[in-house]
C-alpha cells in the first residue's frame, strides 16, 4: 500500500523524535541536503555520464540516493513546519499556470500527424 506524502512526513517525524538531539538546525540540514545532492549527482554521472565508478567504490543506485534526498527534504520540511503536500499542490498550480504554453505538448504533436 502506498503512503501519502503526509504519512511519510509523520513517519520521518516519529523516527527523528526518538532521538534526544531531534532535528538539526536549518543550516545543518541544508548542508546535509547539499551532501546528498552531491551523492545523487555522482551516481547519475556514474550511470548516465562518462565517469566510470572506481572498483573500490560501494555499489549504490540513483534510486537509493534519490531516496536519501527525499528523506532529508522531509526532515527539513518537518523541522520548519512545512506541509509538503500543500507545497506540492501550490507548485503544481504554479507550473500548470505559468508554464501552460511553455513546452510543446504531446497532444499537439499527434494533431499534426
TrEMBL record:
* S-adenosyl-L-methionine listed as a keyword: no
Top-level taxonomic group: Bacteria
Keyword field: Hydrolase
Listed Pfam families: MazG
Quote one Gene Ontology molecular function term: hydrolase activity
Residue ranges constituting the NTP pyrophosphohydrolase MazG-like domain according to the UniProt record: 25-103
Keyword Transmembrane helix assigned: no
Cite the CDD domains for this sequence: NTP-PPase_BsYpjD
Q: Which InterPro entries match?
A: MazG-like_dom, MazG-related_YpjD, YpjD/YvdC
Q: What is this protein called?
A: MazG nucleotide pyrophosphohydrolase
Q: What is the native source organism of this protein?
A: Enterococcus sulfureus ATCC 49903
Amino acid at each position: 500500500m502506498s503512503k501519502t506524502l503526509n504519512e511519510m512526513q509523520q513517519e520521518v517525524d516519529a523516527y527523528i523524535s526518538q532521538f534526544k538531539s531531534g532535528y538539526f538546525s536549518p543550516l545543518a540540514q541544508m548542508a546535509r541536503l547539499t551532501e546528498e545532492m552531491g551523492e545523487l549527482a555522482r551516481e547519475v554521472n556514474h550511470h548516465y555520464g562518462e565517469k566510470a565508478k572506481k572498483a573500490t567504490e560501494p555499489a549504490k543506485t540513483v534510486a537509493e540516493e534519490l531516496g536519501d534526498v527525499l528523506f532529508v527534504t522531509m526532515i527539513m520540511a518537518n523541522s520548519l513546519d512545512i506541509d509538503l503536500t500543500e507545497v506540492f499542490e501550490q507548485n503544481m498550480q504554479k507550473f500548470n499556470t505559468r508554464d501552460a504554453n511553455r513546452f510543446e505538448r504531446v497532444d499537439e504533436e499527434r494533431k499534426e500527424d
